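Write out this protein's structure.
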Amino acid sequence: MQERAPDSIAQFDERLMDVAESLPKRLRQCAEYVAANKDRIAISTVAELADGAGVQPSAFMRFCRILGFSGFSEMQRLFRESYTAGWPDYSTRLKNLREKAEGSPAALLAEFVDVSRVSLENLLKTVDSKALEVAVAALAKAEMIHIIGLRRSYPVASYIAYAFEKMNVPAMLHSGVGGLDNRNALRPNDVLLAVTFSPYAAETIEMVEAVGRRGIPVVAMTDTIVSPLRRFDAITLSVSEVDFGAFRSLSATLCLAITLSVAVGTARSR
């Protein structure tokens, strides 16, 4: 008997998290793409979403049914009803700017401003305020905060390390330069802050797993509800960036990074 379809975005997220690990490869691609691009469901066709996930439309339709929907139209209706009221009025102005300056640097700027705005608005929906408070408390009482973020996540990790240094918060950035593995520097009263986004850096996941086995707390900044970091009992802060073409900015991620850094610095100063 097919499960009843989710009737809210929160229920959709829970269902997606429940089934993601057990899905075969193609359907897991659907889950990962949907989790990272929920803002597109309301305005895209099944063919467009299937193409983005790298699967056939028939596979995407099967994925919808596994979540409990009769098909893609029912899933899309849920997102349209949930998001329509929140769509910003000034998106039309950016659309006009793009059309007037088509192909120019100004048009490119408008595109990135638009996706950055959407990413920042989504941040308020994806970050659990209670999880944020728990993360700040854990980091604030750590003797040393160890930070790891590689590839696209490296600018975020290095920015947090810079902010902590300016606020006299003891922190160590694990960069992997020269192939050095400094995970043995972590002590029982330390905390690991891990930053990774799809496609997830294997080195970051391995470090989180190794540190978790030692009982050292982990705070994770990651993107989707099917992120592998959620398997390791980490305090998870979710942030997802909307992309333009093949490029994703770090607008929302850096906003969360400075929020976390300042909150920890403030808490420690008390």
